[in-house]
Amino acid sequence: MAILGAMPSPRTPLSRLFTVLLAGLLAGLVLALAALPTGLLGGFVAKASLGAYAELPDALRTPAQPQRSYLYANDGKTLITTFYDVNRTDVPLAEIAPVMRQAIISAEDRRFYSHGGADLRGIARALVANVKGGGTEQGGSTLTMQYVRNVLKTDPTRTAEERQAATEQTVGRKLQEIRYANALEQSLSKDEILNRYLNIAYFGSGAYGVAAASQRYFGTAPADLTLGEAALLAGLVQSPDAYSPIDGDKDAALARRAYVLDSMAETGAVTAAQAAAAKAEPLRLRPTAQPNGCTATAQGHDDWGFFCDYLRQWWLTQPAFGDTADEREQALRRGGYRVVTTLDAKIQQTAQAQATKVYGYDDKRALPIAAVEPGTGRVLAMAVNRHYSLADNPGGQANHPNTVNPLISGGASVDGYQAGSTFKLFTMLAALEAGKPLATGFDAPAKLPTRYASDDEGNCDGRWCPSNANPEWMDGYRMMWDGFGRSVNTYFVWLAEQVGEDKVVEMAQRLGITFRADSDAAFARNNAANWGAFTLGVAATTPLDLANAYATVAAEGTYCTPLPVVSVTAPDGDAVDVGQPNCKQVLEPDVARAATDAARCPVGQQSAYGQCNGGTATGVDGIVDRPVAGKTGSSERNATETFVGFTPQVAVAGIAANPDDATDLVGSAVQAKVIDAVARTIKAAVAGKPVKDFTAPSRELAGDPQRPQPRPQPQPQPREDNRNLPSDVLRWLQGRG
Prior knowledge:
With 737 residues, the chain is an alpha+beta fold. The chain folds into three domains: 1-65 and 112-191, no CATH class; 202-292, Penicillin binding protein transpeptidase fold (Orthogonal Bundle), CATH 1.10.3810.10; 369-736, DD-peptidase/beta-lactamase superfamily (Beta-lactamase, 3-Layer(aba) Sandwich), CATH 3.40.710. The protein is built from 29 helices and 20 strands. A five-stranded mixed beta sheet has the order 2-1-5-15-16. The chain has a five-stranded antiparallel beta sheet with strand order 7-6-20-19-18, sandwiched between helices. Strands 3-4 form a two-stranded parallel sheet. A hairpin with a 6-residue loop joins strand 6 and strand 7. It is elongated, with a radius of gyration of 35 Å.
């Protein structure tokens, strides 16, 4: 305990004389009070405290000290990281070992349970000893007085000057401290005061409160402290920085431990033999640094940082934690919340392994993967072949292997990546919603002249005419089933023209596709009706947006805002109302079921109406081995490769791209690896869950699939390409890249 009641050590003969005189006067006053009969002294103290409780600062009546917030995975046990400005966590007295309570009382305030807040005899004894010693030999503050001082000097609602005044060595400050301590003792039990003290005292090495100190020094909970450990911690509060066995003097820490143990034996808290045995124990430290923030996730799990950062960005938008982003940030770092997130550590592990299997950490190309739960929007995994770290990258490499850019969720400098033909889903949904059944047929040509002007080489009489990547396999009479299964460009460009390109763009936005690139947002806002290439996936998106859009279809038209938390609990045990899914019906269930029926075709499964006859990701069926649907996507010249798949229980999307250079083409060869990575993540996500089938669409929305005599078709080629954009779009894409 610092000698907070005494004067500073004198520096000059004059100041020494002044100190001796002032301390002597105060000591005389205190000794006179201490000499009063016990009943009279008690009455004096009680009278002096009348009305004082009502005048106490709010922080003393209803303390709101900063505490660390904890983030857990969805099992509520796996710690992701913590956030704090002050490393502190409150625990009830019942969760603090009795030896710890006894140790702090023996070390700091032996008469704690008998005085009324201020131990006048102890103060007088300390003042006399200090005057005789010419410095600060002893302290006279009780635990209650120390608690008052600790609260006032850390109260975030007070100014810096007010907090500093709480520790000034003046008679006025000391008398106010005594008055506040007496007032607290009139309204709080001794155990409540002791509990508050143990939760706020500074134990050195950045640890505030016994819970943080137990973890910091011994890697244990305060309930499990041994006698020797408790005595060492109790000895630290007198001079935390000097005695800290981690940052200070280990010998001094052991000497203080011995002093505390002797005091415990003198007060009868332990026997002399127990004290001697504890003093003989070697110092066994297990220093445990507390993680702080998203760059300090559990060892070996820096990939969790991307999810953590997404949660933090979400947190800053939630009014439940404050009126402004700054207030919400402070709430996260000082509010002591227990946050159970949606992150599934097992799914995350699989997704991370799959992402790094396709590209290593040192590769400039990346495979960000996101997994979402249909019907809730809960984000189950966010993986990418990068370390979430602020560490420098070797050789001046840009953002690899270390980065904190939101490569999976987008935002900040990340607009996203083109996802190619996965956007054909939005065209199909818009058409189905407009009343066009799955059986809507069109004789898809190898090249389709459109109404858009183009001077590009290969144009059709001055018109943009997109083409099919594999004409022999894609051309011919198609319906939505095989048009989607074989990813027939000319069929979907034609279909978008029939329903209206603006309706397709609106559908994508309805399902959560966010246009983060300024050029995409402007096109959608000002010229959506003429965005003919939109169905081919030229707008940038992210794996998280794409997975959630497909999850909406998996949930039969129920869109849920992506959600990173299961529950948030305040320090008082009350639940914060932010963990409930925010969902709404954005599609008729039958429309979503019809789209799902067609989405069975790309992955090698069969629709409810038997109309699948080829797909671009047919290997998925054998990997997932249960009802599954999905879609591949290749952007212009295979700059990116995408696959998104879903079951009724999970939707997963992955996009292979170079996040820092849109002109770096990943190539078509990686498509099969992306498909495999996403499929295996789906398999891990549904492992152990009951097999659920998709509901078939109505006959009305399926239509009457009357096909003409089909032309001979070669075997499916699981590859697609979009080398068919108009020159103005290509120039725009190149400029954006």
